[in-house]
Design goal:
This protein starts with 24 loop residues before the first helix and ends in a 9-residue tail after the last helix. It is flat. Helix 2 runs antiparallel to helix 3. The chain is mostly helical and 189 residues long. It has 3 helices and no strands.
């Protein structure tokens, strides 16, 4: 027999928590948070995402195959009923998965299409901005040349104005094209 050990010191008693019955979802949440915060060092179990339900696969080898012979017992009906229910569940699951996959593919195609349209719009606007930038630069250069030379301002002015008319007509056509299409691409169907 083992030797008697020294008596243990008494454990400090926890004060009993008053029983509080939550009356609403918010109060229940508050109580849970209070309980968690009483001991912040304690790890909190966070449940992982549950896998989707999947029917169990059909058996590889069926031992008791039901025949079409007469004289089946009364218990065979229930076996048949369960097998039929399980098979219908399996087929419904496969149909639902096929539908989900089809919807996912459609969504991905729609995202790609919207992305392409947005890139085209961006490229078109980039070209337009670049044209305006070049036009301003050209006008600035022409103005500087006119100041330096001081001669033949009428001919160079006519050349610049004819170029401006051509570019203005192109810009007006682009503005008309832009006005037909909305700038928000994600909402297209």
């Amino acid at each position: 027999m083992a030797a008697p050990s020294a008596p243990r010191p008494p454990r400090p008693r926890k004060e009993p928590q008053p029983l509080v019955i939550p009356r609403s979802a918010a109060e229940e949440q508050r109580l849970r948070l209070e309980r968690l915060m009483r001991n912040p060092e304690k790890t909190v179990p966070i449940p992982e995402k549950l896998n989707e339900w999947a029917p169990r696969p059909p058996p590889e080898f069926v031992r008791d195959v039901m025949g079409s012979s007469a004289g089946a017992g009364s218990g065979e009906f229930h076996v048949y009923r369960h097998l039929r229910r399980r098979e219908y569940q399996r087929q419904d699951f496969m149909d639902a998965m096929a539908e989900k996959q089809r919807l996912d593919e459609e969504f991905q195609k729609k995202l790609e299409r919207n992305k392409m349209i947005a890139e085209e719009q961006t490229a078109k606007r980039r070209r337009k901005r670049q044209k305006l930038k070049e036009k301003k630069l050209q006008a600035k250069k022409n103005k500087l040349e006119q100041k330096k030379q001081g001669k033949e301002p009428d001919q160079s002015q006519e050349r610049v104005s004819s170029d401006d008319d051509e570019e203005d007509s192109k810009e007006e056509e682009e503005k008309e094209d832009d006005a037909e299409e909305p700038s928000f691409v994600m909402g297209r169907g």
